[in-house]
Design goal:
The chain is mostly beta strands. The chain has one helix and 21 strands. Helices cover about 10% and strands about 45% of the residues. It starts with a helix and ends with a strand. The model is unreliable at about 15-75 (pLDDT under 50).
């Protein structure tokens, strides 16, 4: 009985020894399997931090990969700073110049506008949206003309680095507005635009006696025109530096009268036909031009009054009819004419 028991104890001891020897080999095999599996996965910095856990244990989750995506670029959030300088033709800086710049759309309409002022050294900075097209203007002030840059972007803004304003001579002007009979035209308004300088439009407004005065306006060539439906324009006015002028500005107004009818070749009156009058003459060295336009009434009739009596170019326009153009000289203070249009 003792021998079988001794044999059983020996077998158990050998089994335990074998198990003890096989356990490290199993651990090594598991570690080798995990190492081979990790080698097959894409490598990332986060993969180096993954720890090997015991079988059945909860696997630690790798930290999420964070990708820094740039914020969407919009015109309102991304701008660049562009610098410039304004001075006069002698190189002296011009401080306190008001500089306006406008962001233009594809159709030329203003999208946004802003303004800055030059510092004591004439320097200024503009905040621009990259690639956008801008217009810049500096208003005339004192004895300096203005400036305008029609089209620039942040990439070709070198023209801003040395903006030069032209110094101008200022003169005084008095005058009177008269009609073709040399009678004063009271309470009449004309606008003046300088033909070579960037300078704001000026306004002439005659008083009850037809007189007007302008003080400290730039010398040079000016165009004078009206903003009324009956259009008048005077060219050839040249103001010289150091010269005082007393002007007589004649416009094509007077006591002449023109009336008539517009009809077709069958004698049918043409309503809403357009009749235009143009005249041109020279007085006191100035070239004066006028343009008037009226539509015919339901009877095809039209009337023009307060005409200056100068020869006229008459144009008549109506849909579906050939345009009629003719010259007219007055035979009296009240001429009446019959105008006939033929179909196209």
């Amino acid at each position: 009985m003792a021998r079988p028991l001794t044999f059983l104890v020996l077998v158990c001891a050998l089994a335990c020894a074998a198990l003890f020897l096989l356990l490290p080999l199993t651990k090594i095999a598991q570690q080798s399997h995990r190492t081979e599996l990790a080698a097959t996965l894409p490598h990332s910095p986060e993969a180096d931090d993954i720890a090997v856990a015991a079988p059945g244990a909860a696997q630690p989750q790798p930290a999420a990969t964070v990708i820094d995506k740039p914020a969407p670029v919009t015109d309102s959030t991304v701008t660049v700073m562009v610098s410039g300088r304004v001075g006069d033709t002698s190189g002296a800086p011009l401080a306190d110049r008001e500089i306006e710049y406008e962001n233009k759309g594809f159709d030329g309409a203003e999208i946004a506008g802003a303004g800055v002022v030059s510092d004591p050294l004439g320097n200024f900075s503009l905040q621009l949206v990259p690639g956008r097209r801008y217009q810049l203007s500096i208003a005339a002030a004192g004895d300096y003309a203005g400036y305008r840059l029609e089209d620039f972007t942040d990439s070709n803004a070198e023209a801003l680095r040395n903006i030069l304003l032209e110094r101008v001579e200022l003169v005084d002007v008095d005058g009177i507005i008269v009609d073709t009979n040399m009678a004063p035209v009271a309470d009449f308004e004309l606008s003046l635009r300088h033909l070579t300088l960037q300078y704001p439009e000026l306004s002439i407004h005659s008083d009850s006696s037809g007189y007007f005065s302008l003080r400290r306006i730039p010398a040079g060539a000016w165009r004078i025109a009206s903003d009324q439906s009956d259009y008048y324009r005077i060219k050839g006015l040249e103001l010289r530096a150091g010269e005082y002028r007393n002007l007589t500005l004649m416009i094509d107004r007077g006591s002449y009268y023109l009336s008539g009818w517009v009809r077709d070749t069958d004698g049918i009156p043409l309503a809403q036909a357009v009749v235009t009058l143009k005249s041109a003459f020279t007085a006191d060295g100035y070239h004066s031009f006028s343009y008037r336009s009226h539509g015919t009434d339901d009877n095809g009739a039209f009337v023009f009054d307060q005409l200056g009596g100068h020869p006229l170019t008459i144009g008549v326009y109506a849909p579906g009819y050939k345009t009629l153009v003719l010259q007219h000289r007055f035979n009296s203070f009240a001429d009446n004419i019959d105008l006939v249009l033929s179909r196209e």
